[in-house]
Amino acid sequence: MKPLTSGLRSLLRFLFAAGDIDRDLSPVVPSVAGWQLSGIPVGADDEAVTTLLASCNRATAIGRRDFAVLLLMARLGLRAVEVARLRLEDIDWRGGELTVRGKGGRVDQMPLPSDVGGALADWLRNGRRPSTLREVFTRTIGPDAPMKRQSIVTVPRHASLRAGIAMVGAHRLRHRVACRVLADGGSLAEVAELLRHNDHASSAIYAKVDLTALAAVVRPWPMAVGDDDTA
């Protein structure tokens, strides 16, 4: 709504400057409130994730790399920048843990699921070019260089195009992780811990999709005296 009202004000100012209207009507366009946490997080569903993963040709280096990137996002909820920062020493193969370097210098240890570990191993053994770089994800074409955040962001987008489905971005994969935690009976505190939010208030938006918790606070609809619900 904000872009619409902003565009309308610009149009009215232009019409006034061009002499098409005799007064500037832009001030009468009402402002739109920008409420915090007003949106509803929409996570990618299981079918979309399965389709994205299936679109990766794992017989190629790019396919192995993209498959591992998508799993990190869809299973662990990693941000694109966290995927880009992942280094070889961050993978504890024996302990089954992953060191994640997040916002504000935050460092967390996360469990490494077997399917994610398998995808990483396949990329490192069979896809990644020999390199002195310590970053896990590197370019497959051109100069030997690590993938930047901007390149990681394009991985789910390109997978969506290959699969012929509606665009699924990195944020939708991250939202999916939070929504699954709540659907399985988890709490907002668990969501905050899993998504590595520095401020638990950042997880409050997911209360809107916690249908079980919302149902517990719904009050019954008042009925007028004499109403018969069997009618």
Automatic annotation (TrEMBL):
Pfam families: Phage_integrase (PF00589). Residues 39-219 form the Tyr recombinase domain. GO terms for molecular function: DNA binding. GO terms for biological process: DNA integration; DNA recombination. Keywords: DNA recombination. This is Integrase. It comes from Nonomuraea deserti.
